[in-house]
Amino acid sequence: MIDSRLSKQLAMLIEILKAQSADFRRLLNYLSQGEEAVRQADVKSLLVICQEERVVAGRLQELDRHRSECVKQIVGIVDPGMVHEGPLRTGDLSAKLPEAMRPDLDEAVEALRGLAEETSRRSAILRSAATTLCRHFGGVIQSVNASLSAGSTTYGRRGRIESPDVLHAMLDIRR
Q1: Which residues contact 124 (CB under 8 A, 6 or more apart)?
Q2: Would you tell me how many other CB atoms lie within 10 Å of the CB of residue 20?
């Protein structure tokens, strides 16, 4: 009876871990799209990608809640006295299981761990690049505002703000 309950809970845990891995792959795909959007300075695309990432992150949070509950159930089957000792990491659960049940769990945990680490690393890089891009745009806007408020009102041929004394408030759009 315990083996069938344990097998069922373990199969459910492995399915949860595989679903989390799939969502982390989706996040990595969105991160690739985000990196390209930053390279192209495409802020609109970056905002859309961020919204899609939030949906996946919400799903990951829900899956993580289910994973924690499933681990708690398995610990309750394997070692009922440990349930009250505090949270047990999924990777540490393997040592509590019979030898025959470990390989699939270990494989799913390692795959998820690698994807989570890669996602975290690339997300930090993208966040830094997006922040730099936003600062750059902010600086450009401040520079243009400062130049325009100092009396300049037009752009010249080379994209530079020119004095109204020189251009007589004209905008050259031939090029």
Answers
A1: none
A2: 22
- pLDDT above 90: percentage of residues in the chain: 37
Let me know: does 108 contact 14? Beta carbons within 8 Å: yes
**Interstrand relation of 154-155 and 161-162 (parallel, antiparallel or unpaired):** antiparallel
Q: What angle do CA 95, 97, 98 make, to 5 degrees?
A: 115
pTM higher than 0.70: yes
Nearest Cα residue to 32 out of 11, 52, 10, 49: 49
* The pLDDT of residue 156 is above 80: no
Residue 171: which region, alpha, beta or left (left: phi > 0; alpha: psi -120 to 50)? beta
**Is the separation of the CB atoms in 33 and 49 below 8 Å?**
yes
Domain ranges across the chain: 2-167
Q: Say if residues 87 and 65 touch (Cβ distance below 8 Å).
A: no
- Helix 2-39 vs helix 102-149: crossing angle, to nearest 10: 30
Q: In the predicted model, what is the mean pLDDT of the chain?
A: 81
Positive or negative torsion for Cα 142, 148, 151, 156: positive
Residue 142: helix, strand or coil by DSSP?
helix
